[in-house]
Structures are given as structure tokens and as C-alpha cells.
């Protein structure tokens, strides 16, 4: 199996696109994934659940994350853990980028 070796600035791995959410998966394994997202202002992921814990680290900008109805305002440098099976949603208050680490086992 070939392993791609990468280094650099995480925030530069995806670029903003008008009216869109852009993502790039860095690691995709049975045990978990690491994905970078770029949200244009006002873009959102509607409320949903995931069967695994996930860590969100904000790389740039500001967002609101709701977990089980409670709102959290995050800025660059902030992180939050979204527990498995808890309903959550993500909204861009301005353009923002995030690192999502999902642990499957």
C-alpha cells in the first residue's frame, strides 16, 4: 500500500468557493477520517447525527455549532468535540475552515 506523505499548512489544502462548502479528505481509514472543510459565509450543514465521536478544530474564520440544541460560537484556534449519536449542525457566520477528525474505533 502506498502512503501519500503530506506536509504544509492545513488551511491551504482547501480554498473557499462562492456559495459552497468544499472538502478534502486527508486520511481515510477504517478507524477514522481526517477532513478539511471550507465554508462560504452563510453555508451550513443541517442537523444530523453520526455514530462516531468527532473533533472539530477551527482553522480560519467563525462558525456556530449546535450540539443537542446548545449553540457554540467558535473562532480560529477553537475546538469542540461532537459526541457520537448527538444531533449537531454547523453554520458559517463568516467564511471559515475547519479540520474534522472522526474516530471510528
From TrEMBL:
Q: Which residues form the signal peptide?
A: none
The family database entries (Pfam families) matched by this protein are listed as: Cupin_2 (PF07883)
What InterPro entries does the entry give?
A: Cupin_2, RmlC-like_jellyroll, RmlC_Cupin_sf
List residues of the Cupin type-2 domain.
42-102
Q: Which residues form a coiled coil?
A: none
**Taxonomically, which superkingdom?**
Bacteria
Recorded hits in PANTHER family, A to Z, give:
SLR8022 PROTEIN
Q: What is this protein called?
A: Cupin domain-containing protein
Q: Which organism is it from?
A: Pseudothermotoga hypogea
Amino acid at each position: 500500500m502506498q502512503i501519500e506523505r503530506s506536509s504544509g499548512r492545513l488551511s491551504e489544502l482547501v480554498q473557499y468557493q462562492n456559495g459552497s462548502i468544499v472538502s478534502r479528505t486527508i486520511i481515510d481509514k477504517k478507524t477514522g477520517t481526517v477532513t478539511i472543510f471550507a465554508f462560504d459565509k452563510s453555508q451550513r450543514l443541517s442537523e444530523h447525527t453520526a455514530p462516531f465521536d468527532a473533533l472539530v478544530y477551527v482553522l480560519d474564520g467563525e462558525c456556530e455549532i449546535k450540539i443537542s440544541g446548545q449553540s457554540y460560537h467558535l473562532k480560529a484556534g477553537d475546538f469542540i468535540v461532537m459526541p457520537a449519536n448527538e444531533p449537531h449542525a454547523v453554520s458559517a457566520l463568516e467564511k471559515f475552515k475547519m479540520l474534522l477528525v472522526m474516530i471510528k474505533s
